Amino acid sequence: MRKTVLSALLSLALVASPALAVNPDEVLSDPALEQRARDISADLRCVVCRGENIDESNAAIARDLRLLVRERLVDGDSNEEVVDFIVERYGEYVLMKPNTSGANVILWAAGPALFLIALISGALYLRRRSQAREGAVALSSDEEARLKELLKDS
């Protein structure tokens, strides 16, 4: 009984822990460099797996990117130089948080701008609609009589 409970808790702990795909042969011997590599990898998206960083992905390209990050760090590159090198090779898609400069400014501003346009359009529509109701013409006595006659038939 006790073994069953312990094995269930152990399996639950393994399932709840973050799934990192970093293999033991990829880990650097220097803990400071390894931590820098992990920090950089957390901000790099796997180009195959959507929404996963390269540390979480099991894809072959993610492994190549992890090895490339570690190789560049061992060669003495700074964190920014490593990220710039990878962005130069694979494009800005590899960044989990894209830059807010250049042409990306249009993308960052498009959402709020379209939201404001939708709010203004909606407000103008509601305003025109409310004004149209105020100017409605009343039914003539003949039309009212015809309406009452139609409603009695139903």
From TrEMBL:
Keywords of the record: Cytochrome c-type biogenesis, Heme, Iron, Membrane, Metal-binding, Signal, Transmembrane, Transmembrane helix
- Residues forming the CcmH/CycL/Ccl2/NrfF N-terminal domain are 10-151
* Entry function: Possible subunit of a heme lyase.
Renumbered to this chain, the signal peptide range is 1-21
- Cross-referenced InterPro entries, in alphabetical order? C-type_cytochrome_biogenesis, CcmH/CycL/Ccl2/NrfF_N, CcmH/CycL/NrfF/Ccl2_sf
Could you tell me which Gene3D superfamilies the record lists for this protein? Cytochrome C biogenesis protein
Coiled-coil residues: none
Q: What is this protein called?
A: Cytochrome c-type biogenesis protein
Query: Which regions span the lipid bilayer?
Result: 105-126
Family of the protein in this entry: Belongs to the CcmH/CycL/Ccl2/NrfF family.
Q: By its UniProt entry, which Pfam families does this protein fall under?
A: CcmH (PF03918)
